[in-house]
## 1
Amino acid sequence: MAFDQDSVRRTAHLARIALPPTEIPAVADQLERIMGLVEELRAIETTGVPTMAHPLDLDQPLRPDTVGNHDQREVLMASAPAADHGLFLVPKVIE
Amino acid sequence: MELHEFSLRELRQGLQERDFSSVELTTTLLKRISALNPILNAFVTVTEGEALAAAATADARRAAGEDGPLLGIPLAHKDIFCTAGVRTTCGSKMLERFVAPYNATVVERLAAEGVVMLGKLNMDEFAMGSSNENSHFGPVRNPWHTGMVPGGSSGGSAAAVAAGLVPVATGTDTGGSIRQPAAFCGITGIKPTYGRVSRYGMIAFASSLDQGGPMARNAEDCALLLNVMAAHDPRDSTSHPAAASDFLRGLDRPLQGLRVGVPEEFFGAGLDPEVAAAVQAGIEELSRQGAAVQSIRLPNNPHAVSTYYVLAPAEASSNLARFDGVRYTHRTANPADLTDLYQHSRYEGFGAEVRRRILVGTYVLSAGYYDAYYRKAQQVRGLIREDFRRAFAEVDVIVGPTTPTPAFPLGAKNADPVAMYLADIYTIAVNLAGIPAASIPCGFTAAGLPIGMQLMGDYFADDLLLNVAHRYQRETQWHRAHPSLQAGEV
């Protein structure tokens, strides 16, 4: 398989990571190597093998729906890179 | 023996008999940290003021008649566990200034026992790495040889415990991140059964694999810490209802009749001969104590690394989508628009390895590749679990090396991500299956680097692993060796 530079650009866009154009060839080479490592999986016979998403065969447990989290607005906002009047600030989305 | 070499049992006895107070103990270790951390870089944050206050509180509780195995005992947390009021960086520029509004369940439970937190420990960024060179705060150095890596991702935890900066520390293990650094630094660590230790407040890397656990200088200290760490937590939907146990209870059981399996796949090409010899000698010691040793097969183990490097990045790409530059993370300066803010904040905030894994995960989950990679890897994960199921029908414990080589030099594997990934070739299958596994010291190379022996058990056999480790350590001295690290050494 070839992990070409277009694949890197497309994947980086999906992941919302702004890779500078100068880094793309090196990243393509590294991803090619990693995908080369995992390529061997495709040859393993898995017909009829169920998928395993999780180690424990547990049902999702339920608990009583009681109020546990109380108002922590100030402490939750304290690490915000930009905030005003209890709101997160971002660049203008609608002109 | 000096105070910084004491076990938890010895520290408790000293505190009970008023040989020293928790404040004196804490002060001693803080001095040691300030002398040695400039060399080791094991701590990202030292919480001196909070530590001395917590130690004074512990002394007051003891003066009022309280006692407990961890009351007044200093420790430090891997910087992946959220601590209210103290920053939690996860080794990342993304979270360099993040102060969590709450404590992780692990932090909370230990604090309630009266432990004294000395600070937060360095780690590979978002727990992605096997050498601790992927930290935004610089690499950690191995106390046995400062030109060598301590392993990762819990490298700060392993180095701090080995160097006597703390008697015990917390760590997390997604593909070997407790066991591999424990092996490289000559300490004891256990990755518990998935679901034993709450993941609440433990920053997520790959949620179906991540598990917190103790790192210490012997198995008994691991058991003491795990007794508090393991508990059912309604705030973690994957926390097991039977998570809690008394890991001290069976610690001393003799090994007579124990069935030990040695997997052929763990002794093939790529295994360093000094590591192989030390682990073989460790197995002989178990045999000498009455264990019946037999050869077993784990035929799908050779597929574990490739399975992991589909599933773990896939889960990571989803988990790390939350770091967007808006709410509590690094934000790029002067973004043109909202998409630009996301994309540049994420490029600047994440290091190269984290970005690589996000890209791999995004790719294997993207349209057209999902069945070929992600679904396939989930099926192979099932085959790997079946290998262990079959093996544990015949044996009680599986024993092999923790790592294929001893600690390697800083910078040795940075150029090739795949070479670094193969450092975890013996540890990853355990996480995929979700079973418990420990690493214990079993020897040294001629160059003086520690070697680790891995003990793997069936689901919820964590107590058996600690029992085997403890009996082994009653008859061996490897875990009692201390690195001769002096302040000023480079």
## 2
Amino acid sequence: MADTTKAQPVSSAALRRQMLAEFWFYFSENRGAVIGLFVFIALVIVAVFAPFIAPHSPFEQYRDAVLVPPVWVEKGNASYLLGTDAVGRDILSRLIYGAQYSLFIGLFVTTLSLTGGILVGLIAGYYRGWVDTVIMRLMDIILAFPSLLLALVLVAILGPSLTNGMIAIALTLQPHFVRLTRAAVMAEKTRDYVTAARISGAGPFRLMFRTILPNCTAPLIVQATLSFSNAILDAAALGFLGMGAQPPAPEWGTMLAEAREFILRAWWVVTFPGLAILITVLAINLMGDGLRDALDPKMKRS
Amino acid sequence: MFGFLLRRLAVLIPTFIGVSIIAFAFIRLLPGDPVALLSGERVMSPERHAQISAQLGLDRPMVIQYLDYLGGVLQGNFGSSIVSKTPILKQFMALFPATVELSFCAILIAIAIGIPAGVIAAIKRGSAIDQSMMGIALVGYSMPIFWWGLLLIILFSGILQWTPVSGRISLMYFFKPVTGFMLIDSLLSGQKGAFASAVSHLILPSIVLATIPLAVIARQTRSAMLEVLSEDYIRTARAKGLSPFRVVSLHALRNAMIPVITTIGLQIGVMLAGAILTETIFSWPGIGKWMVDSVFRRDYPVIQGGLLLIAGIIMVVNLIVDVLYGLINPRIRH
């Protein structure tokens, strides 16, 4: 029998490892992104192990230690490193438990808007025609409202709570995923590999989810990171306006709302919760910039 | 160009109808009796209920009610507030100049700092200046502005005592609004110190509201400049021996501005969302605070009307930006 050159099968595990290595190469070139990633990992650890890390309960009110300043300020107390709030709760412990809220909000809202957006976007981009027109007009309508205003009004309808706030925010973030998915699907749909898959008998579901979707992931991942930080910011803003998580929940925005009346007397009750929000959002945005550079050379900014 | 405008309008009209349906449906989605919600009366006899229902037209079919509402809206009748009983459009017109004044100053700050910062960062690409500017821009972009406002109040109003904490002008001054813009009205009043007072009230809220647009504009300007600076015609201009200043300001900046103008237009929506928080923190009597107060007072007709008015304004502004964009960049008209 004649020697035939055997096609070298590329193991998918090796391929995946190579892709991951390549991704890490580009991602790690961006110093800010790596710092963001480490801060984010630290936040996840703090949130998961909050009960072991926090020195006090986030709800325990130490009535003899009301508005104690941070430890490095005169009259500070080493037991309350970042001071206490107006009813004597330890601010550091509340911030640590607050990380659970923020990360959960980001995860929940992003998952909800991402899955919803992908589903609707795939349908719009795949079927086109009147389905597409109706969906895209609906998305235009949602985008015509400022997101925070729409979320605020939705919460006013549904009733102020963290769950309703998260659903409202997810709804306002979803159109971005729909638009991205639809655009990517339309670009991919006419490519040869899709035609090949269709001719070999793949049904619409297989075509949408197995053939086309995996090739549209890069912009979606970048948008998901942006949504994660937006969700945290908007949820904190709703909490601040009294329409998100309700007291005594140690959610950072809600903590700020409770601290507002003390701003000129006790700077620490205002400063630290906001700083926590800023650091979290900044870390995620830094990661987002790095992801964008690593995943999509076309979108590279510099 | 005319066809382009028509196409944009063709998209705008169904969107506006959709927005009005959402604003209309809103009160029907609320738990509870719409008659009680719209009249603001909690306990009423069945006769009174039927009377108000007929008075408000709530006993008619839903489609008729919607068309009636839409007809009213198109004639400028948005209904009346439950709490103050005044027409919604009148309230809106009284408060809107305050928001416009604040947003205008904010966008001015954002453009005046954001564009030069982006240009400098692009020219000095990779340098310490570039990195620190873009670092600051990312911090600004990530800023919870409600907290940023509180920090500025602590520093400038609390510790330094330079600026007042809230409002549009000191209570010492009183004059009839002419234009609704405090900066202009205070000058027209001729009262000594009134203008300075108006400026000192405006400065902190403007900075807070400018923060996110400033960061976005700086980042966008930098990336647009970087793209343009690598083009062939820039190299030609340099090779001709033009001064670097001329190359940047005359050749590069002009083309880099095209995407930046779109970005600035898109910031209007961001501003109106930011105004909700900024006006609440600084007790600025504009439409953002009006909406938040109405949500708390459960003044549903106001929420409904405000939602529609704000969305309408954003849609019109976006249309204007689109048309301007078409004017400066003929390529996208088709």
